[in-house]
Amino acid sequence: MNGHSRDGLRIVRLANFVTPASGGLRTALEELGRGYLEAGHEPVLIVPGATASDIRTPQGRVVTLPGPVLPGSGGYRVLANRRRLRGLLEEMRPDRLEVSDRTTLRWTGEWARRARVPAVMVSHETADGVFRTWGVPPAVAGRTADRLNARTAHAYARIVCTTEWAEREFVRIGVRNVVRAPLGVDLRRFRPELRSTALRARHLRGGDVLLLLGSRLSVEKRPGRALDALAVLRSQGVRAALVVAGDGPLRAELAARARAERLPAEFLGHVRDRAHLARLQASADLCLAPGPAETFGLSALEALACGTPVVASGSSALPEVIGSAGLAAADTGRSFAAALRELLARPERERRAAARARAGLFGWDRSVAAFLTAHDVPQRRGALEERP
Protein backbone atom coordinates (compact mmCIF):
# COMPACT_ATOMS: atom_id res chain seq x y z
CA MET A 1 0.00 0.00 0.00
CA ASN A 2 1.24 3.50 -0.76
CA GLY A 3 1.41 5.69 2.32
CA HIS A 4 -0.11 9.18 2.57
CA SER A 5 -0.41 11.60 5.45
CA ARG A 6 -4.14 11.00 5.94
CA ASP A 7 -6.38 8.57 7.80
CA GLY A 8 -8.48 7.25 4.93
CA LEU A 9 -7.45 5.55 1.69
CA ARG A 10 -7.18 7.15 -1.71
CA ILE A 11 -9.50 5.05 -3.86
CA VAL A 12 -8.96 5.93 -7.52
CA ARG A 13 -11.79 4.85 -9.79
CA LEU A 14 -11.62 4.60 -13.58
CA ALA A 15 -14.67 4.43 -15.82
CA ASN A 16 -15.44 4.63 -19.51
CA PHE A 17 -18.85 4.91 -21.23
CA VAL A 18 -20.03 7.66 -18.86
CA THR A 19 -21.73 10.79 -20.22
CA PRO A 20 -23.98 13.49 -18.73
CA ALA A 21 -26.90 11.43 -20.09
CA SER A 22 -25.67 8.12 -18.66
CA GLY A 23 -27.95 6.11 -16.43
CA GLY A 24 -27.12 3.29 -14.04
CA LEU A 25 -23.32 3.38 -14.19
CA ARG A 26 -23.19 7.12 -13.55
CA THR A 27 -25.59 6.78 -10.62
CA ALA A 28 -23.58 3.91 -9.13
CA LEU A 29 -20.31 5.84 -9.42
CA GLU A 30 -21.85 8.89 -7.73
CA GLU A 31 -23.41 6.94 -4.86
CA LEU A 32 -20.32 4.83 -4.19
CA GLY A 33 -18.14 7.95 -4.26
CA ARG A 34 -20.39 9.66 -1.72
CA GLY A 35 -20.27 6.56 0.46
CA TYR A 36 -16.48 6.27 0.32
CA LEU A 37 -16.21 9.96 1.24
CA GLU A 38 -18.60 9.60 4.17
CA ALA A 39 -16.60 6.59 5.37
CA GLY A 40 -13.52 8.80 5.64
CA HIS A 41 -11.75 7.87 2.42
CA GLU A 42 -10.57 9.95 -0.53
CA PRO A 43 -12.38 8.86 -3.70
CA VAL A 44 -11.05 10.10 -7.05
CA LEU A 45 -13.00 9.36 -10.23
CA ILE A 46 -11.28 9.57 -13.63
CA VAL A 47 -13.56 9.62 -16.68
CA PRO A 48 -13.30 10.68 -20.35
CA GLY A 49 -14.85 13.85 -21.71
CA ALA A 50 -14.65 16.46 -24.42
CA THR A 51 -12.26 18.65 -22.43
CA ALA A 52 -10.00 18.30 -19.41
CA SER A 53 -11.23 19.28 -15.93
CA ASP A 54 -10.52 18.59 -12.28
CA ILE A 55 -13.30 19.43 -9.81
CA ARG A 56 -14.48 18.69 -6.29
CA THR A 57 -17.99 17.25 -6.06
CA PRO A 58 -20.23 15.56 -3.46
CA GLN A 59 -18.80 12.22 -4.65
CA GLY A 60 -15.21 13.43 -4.23
CA ARG A 61 -12.67 14.60 -6.78
CA VAL A 62 -13.66 14.05 -10.42
CA VAL A 63 -10.95 14.29 -13.07
CA THR A 64 -11.97 14.40 -16.73
CA LEU A 65 -9.40 13.57 -19.42
CA PRO A 66 -10.05 14.31 -23.10
CA GLY A 67 -11.13 11.11 -24.85
CA PRO A 68 -12.41 10.25 -28.32
CA VAL A 69 -16.02 9.33 -29.03
CA LEU A 70 -16.47 5.63 -29.67
CA PRO A 71 -18.05 5.30 -33.15
CA GLY A 72 -21.62 4.02 -33.14
CA SER A 73 -21.93 4.28 -29.36
CA GLY A 74 -24.25 7.28 -29.27
CA GLY A 75 -21.71 9.65 -27.73
CA TYR A 76 -19.75 7.48 -25.31
CA ARG A 77 -16.10 8.44 -24.89
CA VAL A 78 -13.13 6.34 -23.76
CA LEU A 79 -9.87 6.97 -21.90
CA ALA A 80 -7.67 6.19 -24.90
CA ASN A 81 -4.43 8.01 -23.97
CA ARG A 82 -2.65 5.34 -21.94
CA ARG A 83 0.48 7.41 -21.42
CA ARG A 84 -1.43 10.32 -19.91
CA LEU A 85 -3.59 8.08 -17.72
CA ARG A 86 -0.58 6.09 -16.55
CA GLY A 87 1.23 9.31 -15.63
CA LEU A 88 -1.80 10.54 -13.69
CA LEU A 89 -2.06 7.28 -11.77
CA GLU A 90 1.63 7.41 -10.88
CA GLU A 91 1.19 11.00 -9.72
CA MET A 92 -1.87 10.18 -7.59
CA ARG A 93 -0.30 7.12 -5.95
CA PRO A 94 -3.60 5.41 -5.09
CA ASP A 95 -4.08 3.03 -2.19
CA ARG A 96 -6.78 1.17 -4.12
CA LEU A 97 -7.79 1.06 -7.79
CA GLU A 98 -11.37 0.37 -8.94
CA VAL A 99 -12.01 -0.07 -12.67
CA SER A 100 -15.42 -0.06 -14.38
CA ASP A 101 -14.46 -1.16 -17.89
CA ARG A 102 -13.03 -4.60 -18.51
CA THR A 103 -12.17 -4.03 -22.18
CA THR A 104 -10.15 -0.91 -23.04
CA LEU A 105 -8.96 -0.38 -19.45
CA ARG A 106 -7.91 -3.94 -18.62
CA TRP A 107 -4.24 -2.92 -18.92
CA THR A 108 -4.59 -0.94 -15.69
CA GLY A 109 -4.70 -4.21 -13.77
CA GLU A 110 -1.13 -4.96 -14.82
CA TRP A 111 -0.09 -1.40 -13.95
CA ALA A 112 -1.60 -1.84 -10.48
CA ARG A 113 0.18 -5.14 -9.98
CA ARG A 114 3.57 -3.60 -10.82
CA ALA A 115 2.80 -0.60 -8.60
CA ARG A 116 1.65 -2.94 -5.81
CA VAL A 117 -1.76 -1.31 -5.65
CA PRO A 118 -4.66 -3.68 -4.84
CA ALA A 119 -7.08 -3.39 -7.77
CA VAL A 120 -10.62 -4.55 -8.45
CA MET A 121 -12.59 -4.76 -11.68
CA VAL A 122 -16.34 -4.14 -11.40
CA SER A 123 -18.32 -6.28 -13.85
CA HIS A 124 -21.26 -4.07 -14.89
CA GLU A 125 -22.32 -6.39 -17.72
CA THR A 126 -21.74 -9.98 -18.78
CA ALA A 127 -19.33 -10.31 -21.67
CA ASP A 128 -21.20 -13.12 -23.41
CA GLY A 129 -24.50 -11.26 -22.96
CA VAL A 130 -23.14 -8.15 -24.67
CA PHE A 131 -21.63 -10.21 -27.49
CA ARG A 132 -24.96 -12.01 -28.04
CA THR A 133 -26.99 -8.80 -28.11
CA TRP A 134 -24.65 -7.53 -30.82
CA GLY A 135 -25.46 -10.58 -32.95
CA VAL A 136 -22.48 -12.82 -32.18
CA PRO A 137 -23.53 -16.51 -32.34
CA PRO A 138 -24.01 -17.95 -28.81
CA ALA A 139 -21.19 -20.52 -29.06
CA VAL A 140 -18.71 -17.95 -30.32
CA ALA A 141 -19.91 -15.40 -27.75
CA GLY A 142 -19.37 -17.91 -24.94
CA ARG A 143 -15.85 -18.86 -26.02
CA THR A 144 -14.82 -15.24 -26.57
CA ALA A 145 -16.28 -14.22 -23.20
CA ASP A 146 -14.44 -17.03 -21.43
CA ARG A 147 -11.10 -15.89 -22.85
CA LEU A 148 -11.79 -12.26 -21.97
CA ASN A 149 -12.96 -13.13 -18.45
CA ALA A 150 -9.94 -15.35 -17.76
CA ARG A 151 -7.58 -12.53 -18.73
CA THR A 152 -9.57 -10.04 -16.64
CA ALA A 153 -9.52 -12.27 -13.56
CA HIS A 154 -5.77 -12.71 -13.93
CA ALA A 155 -5.19 -8.95 -14.25
CA TYR A 156 -6.99 -7.90 -11.07
CA ALA A 157 -6.86 -8.87 -7.41
CA ARG A 158 -10.64 -9.16 -7.33
CA ILE A 159 -13.61 -9.16 -9.69
CA VAL A 160 -16.73 -7.54 -8.20
CA CYS A 161 -20.11 -8.75 -9.47
CA THR A 162 -23.37 -7.15 -8.41
CA THR A 163 -25.53 -10.31 -8.68
CA GLU A 164 -25.16 -14.08 -8.59
CA TRP A 165 -26.30 -14.07 -12.23
CA ALA A 166 -23.35 -11.87 -13.22
CA GLU A 167 -20.99 -14.04 -11.21
CA ARG A 168 -21.82 -17.20 -13.14
CA GLU A 169 -19.73 -16.45 -16.24
CA PHE A 170 -16.63 -16.26 -14.04
CA VAL A 171 -17.50 -19.23 -11.85
CA ARG A 172 -18.01 -21.50 -14.88
CA ILE A 173 -14.35 -21.08 -15.89
CA GLY A 174 -13.04 -21.64 -12.37
CA VAL A 175 -12.26 -18.04 -11.42
CA ARG A 176 -11.77 -17.88 -7.65
CA ASN A 177 -11.20 -14.17 -7.01
CA VAL A 178 -14.84 -13.12 -7.53
CA VAL A 179 -16.84 -11.37 -4.80
CA ARG A 180 -20.41 -10.13 -4.83
CA ALA A 181 -21.47 -6.60 -3.91
CA PRO A 182 -25.02 -5.49 -4.81
CA LEU A 183 -25.86 -1.97 -5.91
CA GLY A 184 -28.52 0.07 -4.15
CA VAL A 185 -31.22 2.69 -4.43
CA ASP A 186 -31.85 6.03 -2.73
CA LEU A 187 -35.00 5.22 -0.76
CA ARG A 188 -35.57 8.87 0.17
CA ARG A 189 -35.37 10.24 -3.37
CA PHE A 190 -37.41 7.41 -4.90
CA ARG A 191 -40.62 6.80 -2.97
CA PRO A 192 -44.30 5.95 -3.65
CA GLU A 193 -45.59 9.27 -2.25
CA LEU A 194 -44.34 11.02 -5.40
CA ARG A 195 -47.19 9.49 -7.41
CA SER A 196 -49.00 12.30 -9.27
CA THR A 197 -52.50 12.10 -10.72
CA ALA A 198 -51.82 15.17 -12.87
CA LEU A 199 -48.59 13.73 -14.29
CA ARG A 200 -50.33 10.44 -15.05
CA ALA A 201 -53.15 12.20 -16.88
CA ARG A 202 -50.67 14.26 -18.93
CA HIS A 203 -48.91 11.17 -20.24
CA LEU A 204 -51.89 8.80 -20.44
CA ARG A 205 -53.64 11.01 -22.99
CA GLY A 206 -56.99 9.36 -22.31
CA GLY A 207 -55.64 5.88 -21.67
CA ASP A 208 -55.94 3.68 -18.59
CA VAL A 209 -52.51 2.10 -18.09
CA LEU A 210 -49.23 4.05 -18.00
CA LEU A 211 -46.10 2.09 -18.88
CA LEU A 212 -42.56 3.42 -18.38
CA LEU A 213 -39.31 2.45 -20.05
CA GLY A 214 -36.30 4.06 -18.39
CA SER A 215 -33.34 2.97 -20.48
CA ARG A 216 -30.55 3.97 -22.79
CA LEU A 217 -31.90 3.51 -26.31
CA SER A 218 -29.17 1.26 -27.69
CA VAL A 219 -29.20 -2.19 -29.20
CA GLU A 220 -28.03 -4.11 -26.11
CA LYS A 221 -30.95 -2.68 -24.08
CA ARG A 222 -33.57 -3.97 -26.58
CA PRO A 223 -35.86 -0.91 -26.18
CA GLY A 224 -37.95 -1.98 -29.18
CA ARG A 225 -39.39 -4.72 -26.98
CA ALA A 226 -41.38 -2.08 -25.11
CA LEU A 227 -43.06 -1.02 -28.35
CA ASP A 228 -43.68 -4.68 -29.19
CA ALA A 229 -45.45 -5.16 -25.86
CA LEU A 230 -47.42 -1.94 -26.24
CA ALA A 231 -48.64 -3.01 -29.67
CA VAL A 232 -49.79 -6.39 -28.31
CA LEU A 233 -51.61 -4.79 -25.37
CA ARG A 234 -53.38 -2.32 -27.66
CA SER A 235 -54.46 -5.16 -29.96
CA GLN A 236 -55.92 -6.91 -26.90
CA GLY A 237 -58.00 -3.90 -25.97
CA VAL A 238 -55.79 -2.58 -23.16
CA ARG A 239 -55.72 1.22 -23.36
CA ALA A 240 -52.05 1.56 -22.49
CA ALA A 241 -49.62 4.39 -23.19
CA LEU A 242 -45.83 4.28 -23.00
CA VAL A 243 -43.41 6.93 -21.75
CA VAL A 244 -39.74 6.47 -22.66
CA ALA A 245 -37.19 8.23 -20.46
CA GLY A 246 -33.78 7.86 -22.06
CA ASP A 247 -31.75 8.65 -25.13
CA GLY A 248 -29.41 6.82 -27.46
CA PRO A 249 -28.65 5.89 -31.05
CA LEU A 250 -32.01 4.10 -31.58
CA ARG A 251 -34.24 6.98 -30.50
CA ALA A 252 -35.09 8.32 -33.97
CA GLU A 253 -35.82 4.83 -35.30
CA LEU A 254 -38.08 3.96 -32.37
CA ALA A 255 -39.97 7.26 -32.55
CA ALA A 256 -40.53 6.78 -36.29
CA ARG A 257 -41.88 3.29 -35.68
CA ALA A 258 -44.28 4.54 -33.00
CA ARG A 259 -45.62 7.18 -35.39
CA ALA A 260 -45.94 4.72 -38.28
CA GLU A 261 -47.84 2.20 -36.13
CA ARG A 262 -49.84 4.90 -34.32
CA LEU A 263 -48.66 3.69 -30.93
CA PRO A 264 -49.16 6.12 -28.01
CA ALA A 265 -45.48 6.30 -27.08
CA GLU A 266 -43.87 9.51 -25.84
CA PHE A 267 -40.08 9.92 -26.05
CA LEU A 268 -38.78 12.33 -23.41
CA GLY A 269 -35.08 11.90 -24.10
CA HIS A 270 -32.66 11.97 -21.19
CA VAL A 271 -34.43 13.25 -18.06
CA ARG A 272 -31.76 15.27 -16.28
CA ASP A 273 -34.00 16.25 -13.37
CA ARG A 274 -33.74 13.26 -11.04
CA ALA A 275 -36.70 14.50 -8.98
CA HIS A 276 -38.89 14.59 -12.09
CA LEU A 277 -37.70 11.10 -13.06
CA ALA A 278 -38.72 9.83 -9.63
CA ARG A 279 -42.19 11.37 -10.07
CA LEU A 280 -42.49 9.64 -13.44
CA GLN A 281 -41.47 6.30 -11.95
CA ALA A 282 -43.94 6.69 -9.10
CA SER A 283 -46.77 7.74 -11.43
CA ALA A 284 -46.42 4.82 -13.85
CA ASP A 285 -48.44 1.65 -13.36
CA LEU A 286 -45.67 -0.66 -14.53
CA CYS A 287 -42.06 -0.39 -15.60
CA LEU A 288 -40.39 -2.41 -18.38
CA ALA A 289 -36.79 -3.64 -18.30
CA PRO A 290 -36.27 -5.57 -21.56
CA GLY A 291 -32.44 -5.61 -21.66
CA PRO A 292 -31.33 -9.28 -21.78
CA ALA A 293 -27.73 -8.59 -20.66
CA GLU A 294 -28.47 -6.46 -17.57
CA THR A 295 -26.45 -7.56 -14.54
CA PHE A 296 -28.40 -5.48 -12.00
CA GLY A 297 -30.75 -2.80 -13.38
CA LEU A 298 -30.69 0.38 -11.28
CA SER A 299 -33.58 1.97 -13.17
CA ALA A 300 -35.79 -1.02 -12.36
CA LEU A 301 -34.80 -0.85 -8.70
CA GLU A 302 -35.63 2.87 -8.61
CA ALA A 303 -39.07 2.06 -10.03
CA LEU A 304 -39.63 -0.52 -7.29
CA ALA A 305 -38.63 2.05 -4.67
CA CYS A 306 -41.35 4.29 -6.13
CA GLY A 307 -43.89 1.49 -5.71
CA THR A 308 -43.99 0.54 -9.39
CA PRO A 309 -43.68 -3.18 -10.27
CA VAL A 310 -41.33 -4.27 -13.04
CA VAL A 311 -41.51 -6.73 -15.92
CA ALA A 312 -37.96 -7.74 -16.83
CA SER A 313 -36.21 -9.93 -19.36
CA GLY A 314 -35.94 -13.46 -18.04
CA SER A 315 -32.53 -13.65 -19.72
CA SER A 316 -31.08 -10.96 -17.44
CA ALA A 317 -30.15 -10.67 -13.78
CA LEU A 318 -33.24 -8.61 -12.97
CA PRO A 319 -35.49 -11.49 -11.88
CA GLU A 320 -32.94 -12.01 -9.09
CA VAL A 321 -33.22 -8.33 -8.11
CA ILE A 322 -36.97 -7.73 -8.41
CA GLY A 323 -38.06 -11.00 -6.78
CA SER A 324 -41.83 -11.32 -6.37
CA ALA A 325 -42.28 -7.56 -6.84
CA GLY A 326 -42.37 -8.10 -10.59
CA LEU A 327 -42.32 -10.77 -13.25
CA ALA A 328 -39.78 -12.22 -15.67
CA ALA A 329 -40.77 -12.53 -19.31
CA ALA A 330 -39.35 -14.29 -22.33
CA ASP A 331 -37.74 -11.95 -24.84
CA THR A 332 -40.81 -11.35 -27.00
CA GLY A 333 -43.40 -8.60 -27.04
CA ARG A 334 -46.20 -11.10 -26.51
CA SER A 335 -44.55 -12.54 -23.39
CA PHE A 336 -43.94 -9.06 -21.98
CA ALA A 337 -47.56 -8.12 -22.65
CA ALA A 338 -48.80 -11.24 -20.86
CA ALA A 339 -46.62 -10.49 -17.82
CA LEU A 340 -47.83 -6.88 -17.77
CA ARG A 341 -51.47 -8.03 -17.78
CA GLU A 342 -50.75 -10.53 -15.00
CA LEU A 343 -49.29 -7.78 -12.81
CA LEU A 344 -52.19 -5.45 -13.59
CA ALA A 345 -54.57 -8.15 -12.38
CA ARG A 346 -53.08 -7.90 -8.89
CA PRO A 347 -54.72 -5.37 -6.53
CA GLU A 348 -52.94 -2.03 -6.99
CA ARG A 349 -52.30 -1.42 -3.30
CA GLU A 350 -50.74 -4.88 -2.86
CA ARG A 351 -48.50 -4.75 -5.92
CA ARG A 352 -47.21 -1.28 -5.07
CA ALA A 353 -46.53 -2.20 -1.44
CA ALA A 354 -44.63 -5.32 -2.54
CA ALA A 355 -42.49 -3.24 -4.91
CA ARG A 356 -41.50 -0.77 -2.21
CA ALA A 357 -40.77 -3.55 0.29
CA ARG A 358 -38.45 -5.27 -2.18
CA ALA A 359 -36.51 -2.06 -2.87
CA GLY A 360 -36.06 -1.63 0.87
CA LEU A 361 -33.59 -4.51 0.84
CA PHE A 362 -31.16 -2.52 -1.34
CA GLY A 363 -29.92 0.57 0.49
CA TRP A 364 -26.71 2.26 -0.74
CA ASP A 365 -25.17 2.00 2.73
CA ARG A 366 -24.99 -1.76 2.36
CA SER A 367 -23.61 -1.44 -1.14
CA VAL A 368 -20.83 0.88 0.00
CA ALA A 369 -19.96 -1.48 2.85
CA ALA A 370 -19.80 -4.45 0.45
CA PHE A 371 -17.58 -2.58 -2.03
CA LEU A 372 -15.22 -1.46 0.73
CA THR A 373 -15.03 -5.07 1.92
CA ALA A 374 -14.10 -6.09 -1.62
CA HIS A 375 -11.27 -3.56 -1.35
CA ASP A 376 -10.17 -5.15 1.95
CA VAL A 377 -10.93 -1.91 3.76
CA PRO A 378 -11.72 -2.43 7.46
CA GLN A 379 -15.28 -1.44 8.36
CA ARG A 380 -16.27 0.63 11.36
CA ARG A 381 -18.32 -1.26 13.93
CA GLY A 382 -21.91 -1.56 12.71
CA ALA A 383 -21.10 -0.40 9.18
CA LEU A 384 -21.45 -3.84 7.61
CA GLU A 385 -24.68 -5.66 8.32
CA GLU A 386 -25.70 -9.11 7.22
CA ARG A 387 -27.51 -8.87 3.89
CA PRO A 388 -31.14 -10.06 3.81
Question: Could you explain the architecture of this structure?
Answer:
By secondary structure, the protein is α/β, with parallel strands linked by helices. The chain folds into 2 domains: 10-184 and 363-374, Rossmann fold; 192-359, Rossmann fold (3-Layer(aba) Sandwich). It is built from 15 helices and 14 strands. The strands form 2 sheets. Strands 3-4-2-1-5-6-7-8 form an 8-stranded mixed beta sheet, with helices on both faces. A 6-stranded parallel beta sheet has the order 11-10-9-12-13-14, with helices on both faces. Strand 10, helix 9 and strand 11 (265-269) form a beta-alpha-beta unit. 49% of the residues are buried. The model is unreliable at 1-5 and 381-388 (pLDDT under 50).
Give a short overview:
This protein is of the alpha/beta class. The protein is built from 15 helices and 14 strands.
